[in-house]
Automatic annotation (TrEMBL):
Keyword Amino-acid biosynthesis: yes
GO MF entry, a single one: homocitrate synthase activity
Keyword Metal-binding: yes
Protein's name in the database: homocitrate synthase
Cofactor(s) listed in the protein's UniProt record: Mn(2+); Mg(2+)
Length: 469
């Protein structure tokens, strides 16, 4: 729902906006656009543009176009305050994420509860393409339960920050290292993947961190994980830590980034730039407190860097369905400013933007709505509107008006919208009345009083129809 009701608000309902035809080829302004200038015989073709967001060739560690997603809605997401997923919901979410194409699904530890263990087994039996992981404490008891569920891998975690060592499990680094080796060797002996992660990595001692990661890398762990458990890290810190870690281990590197300061997507991007290989996400970012890197936001960010790569890996038009599924399950709305699926993500309002969008959408769009199965809209019934957007609507309605007439009608729309935002129906009525006035000879450009009279007459007729109907 749109919470804003002021005069300049964008209508929430797409039926109140002009959908912009996606099949239209980009027009070059003044050539194939809205100009009355004489057309040159050879029309220049738009050149493919350089993508400034793409990784540079010199960034040899950069994995922005070579990464895997570990989707943790069914583990981290279960820690969201509102979340309770029954078996049926878990299976629906798992299947949807698998169809979307995420490489891994991470599930709650089977040691957490009997139902968690049964659900883990049920999801393993679905035969999904995504590999199934479960997330456990660095403890042999948990590891023994996990490997019996049929998972493809086990994510092991232990706290290494002074806070966790002092106030949580109370273990020293020697004990942590010894247990880690034991658990990793056990999981490996079962022939499945194993990841070792510290918790609260950014507030852990760097020497301790690098030393334990080097140790587990030597015994053949598949991935090491860095976790910004409290969401305190900034992109530069993430880059520096991953870059340092990349130089001391040869295994894959996973990052788990909380969003307490709104940095989770930026931090994930920087982690990939520094050589990380796997990013943890959850749908809508749900998780402990304000959650982690959101799947949709991360996809938007990586699509901007390399659209073809992201399109080749993931079924992007499924994103909205998956977000709605999870939003409903945890009883929240998709946020209005959500990348890609926020209700105004592809709605253009200002007249100057609308004009450029109608000529070539890339002018004001870095994401193509059609790649996500969505539609772009131009909002026109407001005081910031422009005649190019109104002209587009005139054409959609099949009305014949000259540019001068469209500009005249636009001036009237702006005048009315200065009092209140005009609905699509209001705008369409005005354009139809204007058009029939021109056709019948009752109206000419600039005859404001004649237009007002025709509009009044139209309103009265409508009112009478409403009363007699
Ligand atoms: Zn977390």
């Amino acid at each position: 729902m749109c919470p804003c009701q002021n005069g300049d608000s964008i209508p929430n309902d797409p039926s109140q906006m002009v959908p912009v035809d996606l099949s239209e080829k980009p027009k070059v302004n003044g050539i194939n656009g809205h100009s009355n200038h004489a057309q040159p015989s050879a029309q220049p073709q738009p050149q493919p543009r350089h993508n400034p967001y793409a990784p540079r060739a010199s960034d040899f560690l950069n994995n922005v176009s070579n990464f895997k997603i570990i989707e943790s809605t069914l583990r981290e997401g279960e820690q969201f305050a509102n979340a309770f997923f029954d078996t049926k919901t878990k299976i629906a979410i798992a299947k949807a994420l698998d169809a979307f194409g995420v490489e891994y699904l991470e599930l709650t530890s089977p040691a957490a509860s009997e139902q968690s263990r049964l659900d883990c087994e049920a999801i393993c039996k679905l035969g999904l393409k995504s590999k199934i992981l479960t997330h456990i404490r660095c403890h042999m008891d948990d590891a023994r339960i996990a490997v019996e569920t049929g998972v493809d891998g086990v994510d092991v975690v232990i706290g290494t920050s002074s806070f966790l060592r002092e106030f949580s499990h109370g273990k020293d680094m020697a004990y942590i290292t010894k247990t880690a080796i034991e658990v990793i060797n056990f999981v490996k002996s079962k022939g499945i993947e194993v990841r070792f992660s510290t918790e609260d990595s950014f507030r852990s001692d760097l020497v301790d961190l690098l030393s334990i990661y080097q140790t587990v890398d030597k015994i053949g762990v598949n991935r090491v994980g860095i976790a910004d458990t409290v969401g305190c890290a900034n992109p530069r810190q993430v880059y520096d830590l991953i870059r340092t870690l990349r130089s001391v281990v040869s295994c894959d590197i996973e990052v788990h980034l909380h969003n307490d300061t709104g940095m989770a997507i930026a931090n994930a991007y920087c982690a990939l730039e520094a050589g990380a290989t796997h990013i943890d996400t959850s749908v809508l970012g749900i998780g402990e407190r304000v959650g982690i890197t959101p799947l949709g936001g991360l996809v938007a960010c990586l699509y901007a860097a390399n659209p073809e790569y992201v399109k080749s890996k993931y079924n992007l038009p499924m994103l909205r369905e998956i977000e709605n599924l999870v939003a409903e399950a945890v009883e929240v709305n998709v946020p209005f400013m959500n990348p890609i699926t926020g209700y105004c993500a592809f709605t253009h309002k200002a007249g100057i933007h609308a004009k450029a969008i109608l000529n070539n959408p890339s002018t004001y769009e870095i994401l193509k709505p059609e790649d996500f199965g969505l539609t772009r809209y131009v909002s026109i019934g407001h005081r910031l509107t422009g005649w190019n957007a109104v002209k587009s609507r005139v054409e959609q309605l099949g009305l014949k008006l000259t540019d001068e007439q469209v500009k005249d009608a636009t001036a009237k729309i702006k005048e009315l919208a200065d009092v209140r935002t005009q609905s699509m129906d209001d705008v369409d009525s005005l354009l139809r009345v204007y058009h029939s006035g021109i056709q019948s000879g009752e109206l000419e450009v600039g005859q404001r009083e004649a237009l007002d009279r025709l509009l009044r007459k139209h309103r009265e007729e409508r009112h009478t129809e409403g009363v007699t109907a």
